Amino acid sequence: MCGICGQFNFGNQAPVRRVDIEAMARSIIHRGPDDEGYFIAGPLGFGFRRLSIIDLSGGHQPMSDQEESVWVIFNGEIYNFPELKRELQGHGHVFRTNSDTEVIIHGYKQWGDEVLNRLNGMFGLAIWDVRQRRLVLARDPFGIKLIYYRIDGDSLYFGSEMRPIRAIMPGKAEIDTTSLNLFLRYRFTPSPYTILKGVRKLAPGTKLTVQNGSCEVSRWYRFKPEPFTPAKSPAEAREELLSLYKGAIKRQLISDVPVGLLLSGGIDSGLLLALMNLNGSSWPTYTVGYGSSFAGDELADAAETARLLGSKHSSITISRSTFEDVLPKIVGVLEEPIAASSIVPMYFVCQRARQDVKVALVGQGPDELFGGYRRHLGVRYGALWAGLPSWMRKPISSTVAALPRNETLKRGVYSLAIPDRMRRYQHVLSLLPGDQIEGLFQDGLLAPQAGDAILDCWQDLGELMAGTDELGGLQFLEVRSTLPDELLMYADKLSMAHGLELRVPFVDKEIVEYVERLPASFKVRNGSRKWLHRQVCRTYLPESIVKRPKRGFAVNVVDDWFRGVIDNKMADTLLDGGSRIYQYLRPQAVRELFEQHAAGRHDNHKVLFSLVVFEEWLRTHEEPVATLS
Q1: Do residue 29 and residue 128 come from a single domain?
Q2: What is the pTM of this model?
Q3: Same-domain status, 535 and 584
Q4: What is the pLDDT of residues 518-557, one digit of tens each?
Q5: Residues 514-523: pLDDT tens digits?
Q6: Is residue 225 part of a domain?
Q7: Which CB contacts under 8 angstroms, 24+ apart, belong to 31-34?
Q8: Domain residue limits at 317
Q9: Which residues contact residue 112 at a Cβ distance below 8 angstroms, ignoring those fewer than 6 apart?
């Protein structure tokens, strides 16, 4: 796990200045406090910061083959590198290190860009082909790692974060209002957009190729899920999935430094711990919560899971005042506004884990893969709604629309009447209808149909998901959009702010490709979410854990806080007419959202928190770019 950055003057071929590459690398020193490295060759410059995890003495980057014909900088981990190394040695390749980075180099020499499809891991990487004078930037299939880039005239700048790009950008970057619209609608900015004009991020499974003076972005990962033939029985799928889980966790425990686990009170991280125990014992585990101040807290549940499964457990308790005090710093760490309330507990649990370990596993992924959210129930059973006669649907729709709060249900019912598949999914995932979001903006700021930009992000995915059922189609998008650009995005930024590598075994390539071929009935069955995953959990977890309600680092606490306006810094931010957000948004429209929520008429806590995060981001954006170390 590391940080990479670089510059390529692909048009005029002007020499890169070493001082610029060093400035870019310094901006991400928090990602790699153990080592640094540079490669400067005329118009190309690579910078690298290393967090040493595998082959501590031999994994220095930038790395090349013996002939120096291929150079690589790489952030992430390739979990199947031992198998690939043996295969490449069979083709005559000679290795000088035990690092996974060298496998990318020889793999590229053997297979070209096809090497990307052979890697099982998480990565953001750059490959420089000296002979062809060709640069390739690539992001892993499910976007666990990041690559940002900026094309300015004849020059390309890139990095694991935006900091390296901003470190040498002239002046302050402008805000992209289309991206702002997307953020307020979804709580994150979908790839390839970022909140800044002129700065983009590679979408999961895509690459940027630069050769002969031109740049091209294309999708290299083109897995197309097709149902199993013959169909799997539940018992067969359960055993095969368990085998895949065991294999992924065994691979992702490979490390030359201590490994731990971020443990919630739920089944996902509980299963991870149980399967980790098959490869050792007494793993350190870490959890975070709000204690008795929040009824949905899971500190006690996590501690009980740790006791039952024998881990060395540590917990952290935070308060509302801590949340509000540290939020501005966390927003600055994220670089882009992300409005999941779990960003604050994630920051603190990573900080605590780093005191003991350099690597931690985390249980993200099963909710998207198996249907763990309430929206998945509506999508799963939407066909039943469509089968009702219109005289029944209309009064039900009117009743639902009049309900206080229950915004998820309202969005779900409305989306069922949208015939176009992608637009239907777009509405399911949005916090508020598009016209409400657009109504927040000052006149003249938004381009027409700005809210439909997410459809452009998904444009080339429609063909790949053609063989999926209705629920599978939504999940296909979630695994390539909401999961990487929200949950995995903040997991990467907040862990690396502390020099901690997070690994997500449930997002292993073999697991995802298997689950995406399963029917909806294996995911949501008889109203039970994550059905097949729960069957696997029952193999190793007691029923008391399996039956616990979904919580996840006490994420609903912000809803309660926004309904109490006394001594509430976040509420004060929105009610202050001098807040920076009102350069872009209409104060009265924001106040109406707040008043609806406080009165209990609508549940607007997600969009209200998004507005608070945007305000904090604006304040950070006005300050000079700073390192986190």
Answers
A1: yes
A2: 0.93
A3: no
A4: 999 999 999 999 999 999 999 999 998 998 876 655 556 6
A5: 999 999 999 9
A6: no
A7: 31/1, 31/2, 31/3, 31/75, 31/160, 31/161, 31/496, 31/499, 32/2, 32/3, 33/499, 33/629
A8: 234-370+481-555
A9: none
